[in-house]
Design a protein that fits this description.
With 335 residues, the chain is α+β, with helices and mostly antiparallel strands. Helices cover 13% and strands 20% of the residues. It contains 3 helices and 10 strands; from the N terminus they run H-E-H-E-E-E-E-E-E-E-E-E-H. Strands 1, 2, 3, 4, 5, 6, 7, 8, 9 and 10 form a 10-stranded antiparallel beta sheet that branches. It is globular and about 75 Å long. The relative contact order is 0.17.
């Protein structure tokens, strides 16, 4: 597992090594139906995916790898696996996870060159003029001020308000919306009844309840962390439209405040064990164009257990206690 994970950080060295589960649904596949006649999307689905969000530039506007490229990359992957060193753990309040904790490789193989399918070059569009841009990261801390809109990392260790949203157990760093594969816990459970669809992500166990059909939107003054979702069926595709984000997260990537974000998600069952998940993010105050991406989801033969998120309990206290201890040692040594 370590090899597949380390490849994520080798874009400059081995820019073509991206493997994961593919979207291989047959055009004539007929999805099973619920008792209400709707396509049955229920169950636990995994969206681990080590295809890069943005397309390496050498592929231009090409969305898929060739058979020859896949064989070459498979050989490079095997060679890297044979020669890779053991993962080196990280320690201290400024460090994050080592490779032991990370799950990013999907099931099967992928032939896509990027998650992003629009813009045509598979890369994020230019930032809008005046867009707020913050590059959050797990470690070390970044410069910034409250409110901290980044999901991972933080701006300091003076108090919990200086930490990122995932450390405060407010938003999972892969839960979106939209879904974006990340370090681990890339699982989604879908529930359906006649009038509602529930999308529950494992990370921070966030559940979005989307009513089906014609329902009035919330007042524009009401903002929510995960937005306000409404859903409808377009043939066999579930379409979920989400507005009313609270402005306290980034719109997508490292830009925006989410206040003007509009999200469209399209979920289609394309095989017995595969969903195709397509998202489109529009925020003219963050980017100069919309962003569309496609991620395959694979059925999990198991249950989704609660993600208790203890970072906001003993984890946060211990991190702040460690920072105070470091400061005390520094003060003692300077005397």
């Amino acid at each position: 597992m370590r090899t597949k994970l380390l490849l994520l950080g080798l874009g400059g060295l081995l820019p073509g090594l991206f493997f994961g589960n593919a979207t291989l649904g047959a055009e004539d596949y007929q999805a099973p139906r619920t008792e209400w006649g709707q396509p049955d999307l229920q169950g636990v689905w995994n969206y681990s995916y080590n295809v890069p969000l943005e397309r390496p530039r050498q592929y231009g506007e090409r969305q898929f790898l060739t058979e020859e490229e896949i064989e070459q990359l498979r050989a490079m992957l095997n060679a890297f696996d044979e020669n890779s060193d053991a993962a080196i753990p990280n320690f201290g309040v400024d460090e994050a996870y080592n490779d032991f904790w990370i799950e990013s490789a999907g099931i099967g193989e992928a032939v896509r060159t990027s998650i992003i399918t629009y813009p045509p070059d598979g890369r994020l569009p230019a930032f809008a003029e005046g867009a707020i841009v913050v590059n959050g990261r797990l470690a070390p801390d970044i410069e910034g001020e409250r409110p901290v809109r980044v999901i991972p990392g933080g701006i300091g260790k003076d108090g919990p308000e200086d930490r990122g949203l995932s450390e405060r157990c407010i938003m999972g760093f892969n839960a979106g919306p939209p879904l974006v594969p990340s370090l681990y816990n890339n699982n989604l459970q879908i529930f359906q009844n006649r009038e509602h669809v529930v999308l529950m992500t494992e990370m921070v166990h966030d559940a979005r309840i989307a009513p089906l059909g014609e329902h009035p939107p919330l007042d524009e003054a009401i903002g929510l962390w995960s937005g306000d979702s409404r859903a409808y069926w377009d043939g066999d595709t579930l379409v979920v439209e989400t507005r009313n984000f609270n402005g306290l997260t980034q719109s997508f990537g490292n830009a925006g405040t989410s206040e003007n974000k509009f999200l469209i998600e399209r979920i289609t069952r394309v095989g017995e064990a595969t969903l195709e998940y397509e998202f489109t993010v529009e925020d003219p105050t963050a980017y100069t164009d919309r962003i569309t991406g496609i991620i395959p989801l694979t059925k999990v033969a198991g249950l989704l257990y609660e993600y208790a998120c203890h970072e906001g309990n003993y984890g946060m206290v211990n991190m702040l206690r460690g920072a105070r201890a470091e400061e005390a040692r520094a003060a003692e040594s300077s005397r």
